Amino acid sequence: MNTTISIFLFLSGIAAGICLFAFKYIPLSKDNAAKEQKINNLKENIENQTQLSNNLKIEFENIASKVSEEKNANISLSKDNAAKEQKIHDLMENIENQMRDNAAKEQKIHDLTKNIENLSKDNAAKEQKINNLKENIENQTQFSNNLKIEFENIASKNIENQTQLSSNLKTEFENIALKVLEEKNAKITDLNRISLENIVFPFKEKIDEFRNKIDNLQTYEAEKMSGLQKELEKLISINNSVSAEAKNLANALKGDNKLQGTWGEMCLERIFEYAGMTKDVHYESQKQFKADDGKKIPDYIVKLPDGKHIVIDAKTSLVAYEKYYNTQNEDDKKNSLKEHSSSVKRHIDELATKDYISLPGLNQPEYALMFVPLDGAISIALDDKPDLIEYAFKKNIAIVTPSTLLATLKTIQYIWRQENQKKNVIEIAKQGGSLYDNFVTFVEVLREADKKISEAKSKTQEAIKRLSASDKKGNSLIAKAQRLKDLGSPTKKEIPEDLLKNGDKNDAV
């Protein structure tokens, strides 16, 4: 738009200049037609130029309008292009992400395909093995059937052969017997009575000998049976005695709660022994404690590493338990079961009131162990009260039986072994450190001794040199000492030859 206005003003200026030029340099003369004609031509040219300027102005305005529209369109297109470029950029990023995802998925597909191929190969191999096994089984089955048929045939043939052989043997035996009888009869006839006695008498002796053996055997068997009967009577007597004692023990246990407790403690002692624990080392029994509410004596205290403890109290309930197993009436069984489970629950409550876990001087977990010496007693109690163990835990009590307690004590014994090994390792480390320090000290002393020995050796060499060194008169100490001997001084020892030679050399020097 500004360019169009500038062009229009420029053309207007040209037209005005031409007019001024015409009026200034061409004097008007009414009679000068040529000049007027020129002026008219100039006016016409000016009008044409003005018209042309107007046309140009309109055309430029149109062009400017189009340019402005195109510019606005270009701006809009630029904005659209920028948005589209942003979309294209986002799409490219999405495409790249999709390509990466596709690559990862293709890799996964490739891996899965590979796994499937491997599995297919494995399955094929396994199917081949299965087919081979099936084929082997079929072959074995066929072979077994063939063997069975062959065995049946052989057995049938053997039976037939045995039957035939038996028949043949029977016939042959009969024939031989007839021949023997005929021969015997012939011999009897020939030899008469004497020959008959010679034949029958040995047979009679054999029969008598056989009869004696049978009599002796019957006598021996009779004596043996008599001794066996006595032993059996003795065994019956012992069995009756044991039964009576067992019955008395059972009655005593049923009737005496203290005796039941003693029996439970005996079972506990046996379990400690099986677990490899030593009394007063790994556990203590009947130890007294003074608490605020009086004196308390837990049955057993198991010692753990780091000064920790576990309290075990034995509880035995046999009356209802024995009734449950000995009665045949279902109602009595139910009542005995309820009575037994209630008895176990009472033991839990009694143990909870003793509050062993807060005894002074004990460092233990937040629960005590209630030992029941019969696994079956807890098993049937749980049949009636399934939440009995949970109930005990709420009372800070854990129920244990011989099997579970033995496993627990074995674990504790293993912990003790580990603790002892740990202490041994620590002691070995201490001893090793002390040994190393002593070794370093020994090396230092040895080096100092070596230094002193070297110094002493140097001093010795220096002293030897001084013995051999000559004074201002050319005499050494060795030579002077030897001269004393030469002058008649009584001596018992001799100066070594090498020193004398060194002294003589130094004297000569």
UniProtKB/TrEMBL annotation:
<comment type="similarity">
    <text>Belongs to the RmuC family.</text>
</comment>
<keyword id="KW-0472">Membrane</keyword>
<keyword id="KW-1133">Transmembrane helix</keyword>
<comment type="function">
    <text>Involved in DNA recombination.</text>
</comment>
<keyword id="KW-0233">DNA recombination</keyword>
<feature type="transmembrane region" description="Helical">
    <location>
        <begin position="7"/>
        <end position="26"/>
    </location>
</feature>
<keyword id="KW-0812">Transmembrane</keyword>
<keyword id="KW-0175">Coiled coil</keyword>
<dbReference type="Pfam" id="PF02646">
    <property type="entry name" value="RmuC"/>
</dbReference>
<feature type="coiled-coil region">
    <location>
        <begin position="32"/>
        <end position="150"/>
    </location>
</feature>
<feature type="region of interest" description="Disordered">
    <location>
        <begin position="488"/>
        <end position="509"/>
    </location>
</feature>
<dbReference type="GO" id="GO:0006310">
    <property type="term" value="P:DNA recombination"/>
</dbReference>
<dbReference type="InterPro" id="IPR003798">
    <property type="entry name" value="DNA_recombination_RmuC"/>
</dbReference>
<protein>
    <submittedName>
        <fullName>DNA recombination protein RmuC homolog</fullName>
    </submittedName>
</protein>
